[in-house]
Amino acid sequence: MSKKFQFIVVLILIYFAYFYNVDFSQENTVQDYSFEIEEKPAKVTNFFVYGTHLNLEGKIKLEEEFDNLILGLVNEENEIKKYDLNYQEEEKEVKFYLSEKINRGIDLEKVTEGFYTFFLIVEGEVELYYLLKNKTEHENIEYYSLSQNGYTNKMYLNVADGFVLQVEKIAVPDDVYDFVLDPGHGGRDPGAVSGGYYERDLNLLYAKKIKEKLINLGYRVKLTRENNTDILPTYGPDGRVQFAYTTKAKFFFSIHFNSNYVRNEYEGVEIYVPPKTNLDFASELATNIKEKANTKYSNLEDFRVKDGVYRRFLSQENIDAMSDSFSQLGVQLHENMHQKTPYYFVLRETGGMMTNAYVDGRDPRREANEFHNSYIAPESYLVEFGYMNHDGNLANILNNKEGYVAGFIKTIVDNLER
Ligand SMILES: [Zn+2]
């Protein structure tokens, strides 16, 4: 055979191999299973990605007795990854969900390359398999796993016809990041001021040190601001909240140092978390900072949910004040402005629907968070390393930066080991 002819034969073979494969995989998703599929689907009433987890809830009418409900991800080889479901029976309808915690569910970091179809598996005398049907307004989701050696698992969840997850290893695209670090305040806003030091400067200094360590671990990191002079808006297309979404990051950390009205009254580390979250990561972060920086858990009792871990909601006074100013503007309060909504915008607005974001542009005094309805968002934490108006804390913050940063990095390494 001539070289040219060989080349054409190879091209034809590639062409058939490619299309044969595509056909095969499509067929496989609808009929090549080792089990029968029930006719009616299970209805999905909510699903979202928060941090590194996919969460999902739904309902189904079941006539027959059953022992247990499972969510199964079935790949092309008919292998099933099983996830326990919680469920409640109401009359003939059963409500099911992966987790009440927004940062739990299916750990997407552990889903390997492949093509998976979701099934609700009803375990009883026989096993019944139901496809899922999207009953929400949500559309398809794209997720990029934490990067490793320049690669990421790109995940595409297609919900147009059943729930199908395609996972493919690719080089990390330029606009995809693992972490956003947000040095609080900046520009005209100095934050806390104590002993001649400005919080905005320390926030940036610490964020840059943490960024350097994370990059050395192979992560991709974005800062919301790179200097202390530019004025960074909160919302709108150039705002700090926007970074949570446009970077496709898995974690968002807002970096702060604390202060109050009475010198030396409070000291120690505080980690603020959104509602409905598992606290393990926040708790380890507080403990590791305490130990590595030789500091304490904060002695502030308000809003404390665990040693070093805090959760602050809007109070009725906050809501009343917003209600007054909104009625003067002739604007209706948002339904998310209630007492289970985070007080700090940096936790609330970076988490989309999952954390009750509400800055949707109705308030003419501020730009909109155009992602307030997002159902994919990073897991957010607000870190208060210590009190600048506590003499011992301030000396430690200035002289023991490596200790604080080491506590932060240890928590990342221990929890996100790859
Ligand atoms: Zn601050």
Descriptive report:
The relative contact order is 0.12. Strand 19 and strand 20 form a beta hairpin. The chain is an alpha+beta fold and 418 residues long. The protein contains eight helices and 22 strands. About 3% of the residues have low confidence. Strands 1, 2, 3, 4, 5, 6, 7, 8, 9, 10, 11, 12 and 21 form a 13-stranded mixed beta sheet that branches. A seven-stranded mixed beta sheet has the order 16-13-17-22-18-20-19. 25% of the residues lie in helices and 28% in strands. It folds into two domains: 137 residues, Sandwich (Immunoglobulin-like); 237 residues, Aminopeptidase (3-Layer(aba) Sandwich). Zinc ion binds next to loops.
Structure summary:
With 418 residues, the protein is α+β, with helices and mostly antiparallel strands. It is 25% helix and 28% strand.
